[in-house]
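Figure 6 in text form: structure in, sequence out.
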């Protein structure tokens, strides 16, 4: 960007200040890149991701952040998994497209289609989960998480 505009990097960094806290810094030094957060409906732009431990309890594993240009970032709660360096561009957890390990938990098969069909209209999603975008999948997963928490408090 600096080269294209004929200015130095510090000028670009100062200009990014107009976005407030929205710019996300990816990388460091000469490899620094910037991205803007992307809100999904009224759900915000950042969500927790939990992992089940050996005793069956959920523990915070990471946070998922939606960025512009249909990319995502995983912010690890602890040390990142050993396999992460093979799939993410850099230590900052940047991913082009929905992270594969989250896409795999979208509703699938007969029961998944039935569940998606049951909630699609109220969530304004297509009834067929095979046609869902990454955002649709996130909306559904977030709604199911909220529904599960409601059932825990009611039951």
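Output sequence:
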């Amino acid at each position: 960007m600096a080269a294209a505009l004929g200015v130095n990097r510090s000028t670009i960094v100062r200009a990014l200040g107009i976005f407030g806290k929205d710019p996300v810094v990816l990388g460091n030094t000469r490899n620094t890149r910037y991205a803007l957060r992307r809100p999904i409906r009224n759900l915000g732009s950042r969500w927790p991701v939990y992992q089940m431990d050996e005793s069956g309890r959920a523990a915070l594993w990471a946070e998922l952040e939606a960025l512009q240009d249909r990319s995502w970032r995983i912010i690890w709660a602890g040390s990142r998994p050993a396999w992460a360096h093979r799939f993410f561009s850099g230590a900052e957890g940047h991913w082009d497209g929905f992270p594969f390990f989250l896409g795999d938990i979208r509703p699938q098969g007969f029961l998944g289609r039935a569940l998606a069909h049951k909630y699609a209209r109220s969530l304004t999603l297509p009834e067929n989960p095979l046609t869902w975008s990454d955002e649709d999948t996130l909306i559904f997963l977030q709604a199911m998480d909220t529904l599960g928490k409601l059932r825990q408090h009611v039951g």
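Caption detail: The CA atoms of residues 37 and 154 lie 34 Å apart.
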